[in-house]
Write a structure and sequence with these properties.
Elements: H1 4-19, H2 27-62, H3 67-86, H4 95-98, H5 112-143, H6 149-164, H7 189-224
Helix pairs in contact: 2-3, 6-7
C-alpha cells in the first residue's frame, strides 16, 4: 500500500498532463498539478539544503580530509541565503515597494546577491571551465592518435574545424598551393568547417535528439504503467 498509492498518483498526474495537451477541459487540473509540482520542488530544495548542511557538518565534526572545504561551503551557503532573503542592497523601484519591507527584486543590479553572482560565482565558473580545457586537450591527444581509419578521419576532421576557426578566412583547404591558371579555386577551410557543421554535426545531433526522445518516451511509459519505481527510492 505504501508504494501503490505513490505509483497511482504518478500515473494519474502523468496521464492528466499528457491528455491536457489535447483537451482544454483538463487545463485546470493541469494547472493544479503544476502548482503542486512547484510546492514539492520547493520542499525538495529545502530538504536538499538540510542534507547539505548535515553532510558538511559531519565532515567538520569528524575532521575528515578536506573538512576545511566543507566549512567554506557552509559559510558561503548561509551568507548567500541571508543576502538573498534579506535583499541586502536592494533599492525599492516604486512607491508601492517603499511601503513594504524587503520589497524589490533580489537580483537587482548593485544588490548584494547580484554582487555575489557577478564577482564571485561567475569568475569561479569561468575558472572551472578554463581548467577543463587542459583535460579536453589531454583527451583529444589520446583520441587523435592515428591507429586506425576511424581515428585518421577524426584527426583530419578536427584539424579542418580547428584551422577553420582562425582569423584568416581565406586559408585554403589543407594548405594546398595556389591552383594553376584556368583551374578552379580551392575551397577555403572556413567553408569546409561550415559544411562539416551543417551536414555531419547536424546529422549527429539529430540522431542523438531522436534517441533521447525515444528514451524519454520509454521511461515515461514505464512510470505511467508503474513498471519503473526508482523515484520511490527503492529498487522496485
Amino acid at each position: 500500500m505504501s508504494k501503490t498509492v505513490p505509483v497511482l498518483i504518478a500515473s494519474i498526474v502523468g496521464c492528466i498532463m499528457i491528455v491536457a495537451n489535447f483537451s482544454p477541459f483538463l487545463l485546470p487540473a493541469r494547472q493544479i498539478a503544476e502548482d503542486w509540482f512547484t510546492i514539492v520542488a520547493t520542499i525538495a530544495m529545502m530538504l536538499g539544503g538540510a542534507n547539505l548542511c548535515v553532510h558538511h557538518l559531519k565532515n567538520i565534526s569528524d575532521r575528515e580530509a578536506g573538512w576545511g572545504f566543507s566549512a567554506v561551503t557552509l559559510i558561503s551557503f548561509f551568507i548567500t541565503i541571508a543576502v538573498g532573503l534579506l535583499k541586502i542592497g536592494v533599492v525599492p523601484e516604486s512607491e508601492q515597494q517603499v511601503k513594504f519591507a524587503w520589497s524589490g527584486p533580489f537580483q537587482q543590479e548593485g544588490s548584494g546577491f547580484w554582487w555575489i553572482y557577478q564577482y564571485l560565482f561567475s569568475p569561479i565558473v569561468s575558472t572551472m571551465f578554463a581548467l577543463l580545457a587542459f583535460y579536453v586537450a589531454s583527451a583529444a591527444f589520446r583520441a587523435f592518435r592515428a591507429k586506425n581509419l576511424e581515428a585518421i578521419l577524426l584527426l583530419i576532421t578536427a584539424l579542418i574545424v580547428l584551422v577553420g576557426q582562425t582569423r584568416d578566412r581565406e586559408i585554403t583547404s589543407l594548405f594546398l598551393p595556389p591552383p594553376a591558371e584556368g583551374m578552379p579555386q580551392h575551397v577555403p577551410i572556413a567553408d569546409l568547417t561550415e559544411f562539416i557543421r551543417k551536414t555531419f554535426v547536424t546529422a549527429g545531433q539529430r540522431a542523438i535528439m531522436i534517441g533521447i526522445a525515444l528514451g524519454v518516451v520509454a521511461t515515461s511509459l514505464r512510470i505511467l504503467l508503474g513498471l519503473d519505481r526508482s523515484y520511490l527510492g527503492g529498487d522496485e
